[in-house]
Design brief:
Layout (H helix, E strand, L loop, with lengths): L6 H9 L4 E9 L2 E14 L2 E10 L1 H14 L1
Antiparallel strand pairs: 1-2, 2-3
Length: about 70
């Protein structure tokens, strides 16, 4: 399971018809990347499905960190 996804919070939001969004850290080989995850519910062929969207935001996080460190 992906750490950072809180199943209780996710299911609560999904049951209210909302999407669940979080950032998680994933290690690929020696490098760690940050993913923005959005999970929502839908239906396909009258069957409930979860839709998970993932976006690599590592460069954005690096830029935010650089800007914050320069401002100090």
């Amino acid at each position: 399971m992906l750490e950072g996804i809180k199943l209780d919070n996710m299911m609560e939001r999904i049951e209210r018809g909302r999407s669940y969004t979080t950032d998680i850290q994933v290690k690929i080989k020696r490098r760690e990347i940050t993913l923005a995850i959005t999970i929502s519910a839908s239906e396909h062929a009258e069957m409930p499905v979860f839709i998970m969207e993932c976006q690599n935001i590592s460069k954005i996080k690096e830029l935010e960190y650089m800007i914050e460190s320069y401002s100090k």
